[in-house]
Design brief:
By secondary structure, the chain is mainly α. Among the domains are: 38 residues, no CATH class; 44 residues. 58% of the residues lie in helices and 0% in strands. The protein has seven helices and no strands. Helix 4 packs across helix 5. The longest helix has 14 residues. The protein is elongated and about 85 Å long.
């Protein structure tokens, strides 16, 4: 059984890379890469992802967001302890996960205490 990419390669093998790229309207470097991959591996299928799988699941990320939204002033260490007790996740990279989700440690804006009297003076 042959894949569609090998069929295309067999049909277009007598044409140059430049001609194939013009026919398919894709860059020459892409065509060259596909042909090289076909020759070396025999297929254009992608290889499995490399590296260590993520420890934090989507459920764990949801729990992390909920914990953070409940109390914004918790430290990363206390959040890690909460996650460990709530959903049995022992994660040391809470800070990295929070950055990945878009939460960054920022100091609260200082707001002056405005009384009714001060508000009248400012007007």
């Amino acid at each position: 059984m042959q894949t569609s990419s090998t069929n295309i390669y067999e049909r277009l093998c007598n044409k140059s890379i430049h001609e194939i790229s013009l026919l398919l309207n894709i860059p020459r470097s892409t065509v060259s890469g596909i042909i090289t991959k076909l020759k070396q591996l025999g297929t254009t299928a992608t290889q499995p992802p490399r590296g260590r799988p993520r420890k934090m699941t989507e459920r764990g990320q949801h729990m992390l967001k909920r914990t953070l939204r409940r109390s914004r002033q918790l430290s990363a260490e206390s959040i890690a302890k909460d996650l460990q007790t709530l959903c049995c996740l022992q994660i040391s990279t809470v800070h990295r996960e929070l950055h990945g989700m878009g939460f960054h440690g920022q100091a609260a804006a200082s707001k002056p205490y405005i009384t009714k009297c001060n508000a009248k003076r400012q007007m």
